[in-house]
Amino acid sequence: MRIPALGGERVVFEAELRHAPAPPHRLRAAQPCTFGRRQGEGRQAPRHYRQVLGIHEAATRADLIAAGVSRRTLATALRSGEIVRARRDRYVSAAAPEQVLRAVRVGGRLTCLALLRLLGVFVLEQPAVHIHIVRGTSRIRSPRTAKEPLEPRELRKVRLHWLPLIRPDEATLARVGVIDALIHSVLCQPARHAIATLDSALNKGLIQVEHLGEIFTALPARYRALRPMLDGRAQSGPETLVRLMARGLGCVVEPQVWFDGIGRVDMVVDGWLVIECDSREFHSSWEQQVADRKRDLALAALGYSCLRVTAAQVMYRPEEVLAPLRGLVEARRRVTR
């Protein structure tokens, strides 16, 4: 199965009919714009460079001109600051995230945690911009300015990845493909966080289960122990982290369980404990909190206990979650012996 394309790929544009009045017999149907033609050869130029330069992408001068962006338009956009020359013959949109601009300016492609976060994949931390560099690349520049060389390792605010790409055909001038970004992310995080990132990519449909073999084959053998712990049903990173805590206590965990008349819960542990991971986004209002209490009471009527934790506790104060979880599990085991 093919990995879904990221935003900013070269696309086919529909040219518009001119707005000037014309006799009906002179109007022609809009024709698709293809790359590589000169302006006026069977199509109109794109209305704006944004149709060529996505916010997660970069382009060369030749790319822009071939797509129908005139030299005058390009020069005007550069003067106005709408397009930024990141380094020699590498252009990005002024709307591009800072991470994209810095990766291109250095001379590489955005990857790992920095890219995955832009794609909406869960990553717990992003301490630096992660950039893939092809071995042998010359003129590696500072992420601050292309006029200076890259800072010494101890002063850098970027992290460089030098591994050969597994899917080089999916890389663009600005970023690597999803598979390679995930491989890099496993190497850059603690195991629990890496599992949460892979779960998130599965849940969002950026990869499928069949792609996991390719990912773990590219990783050192010691990482293969993580594969059985993955579960793409988890709808958030905190859910994965709590599931791993419960599994570490020897529990059986079933994610995303549906109860008639109540709805879906984040997970059920050992068939009796419901755990809900609440975020500020969906549980901050009083109305939502009242609804949560009604759900908890309905679950209690069915014989389930409910433990609610916040996403912030799970991610940044895990001991506040693990201690009560362990207490409940051990108390239940003492009673059922």
Describe this structure in words.
The protein has 337 residues and is α+β, with helices and mostly antiparallel strands. The protein folds into three domains: 30-95, no CATH class; 100-229, no CATH class; 237-336, VSR Endonuclease (Endonuclease, Chain A), CATH 3.40.960.10. It is 35% helix and 15% strand. It has helices spanning 61-66, 71-80, 98-106, 112-118, 178-188, 191-203, 212-218, 237-248, 280-283, 286-301, 311-316, 319-336; strands at residues 13-14, 32-33, 83-87, 90-93, 109-110, 129-132, 158-161, 253-259, 263-269, 273-278, 305-310. The strands form four sheets. Strands 8-9-10-11 form a four-stranded mixed sheet. Strand 3 (83-87) and strand 4 form a beta hairpin. Helix 4 crosses helix 5 (178-188), helix 5 (178-188) runs antiparallel to helix 6 and helix 5 (178-188) packs across helix 7. The radius of gyration is 25 Å and the shape is elongated. Residues 1-47 have low confidence and may be disordered.
How much of the residues is beta strand, in percent? 5-15%
Q: Mean of the pLDDT scores?
A: 85
Task: Decide which structural class fits the backbone.
Answer: alpha+beta
Largest sheet: 4 strands, mixed
Strand tally, please? 11
Q: Percent of residues in helical segments? A: 25-40%
Ends distance: 48 Å
Q: Which regions have little confidence, pLDDT < 50, spanning 5+ residues?
A: 1-47
Strand order of the largest sheet: 8-9-10-11
Q: Strand-and-helix sequence, N→C?
A: EEHHEEHEHEEHHHHEEEHHEHH
Tally of separate domains: 3
Report Rg.
Answer: 25 Å
The best one-word shape is elongated
The tally of helices reads: 12
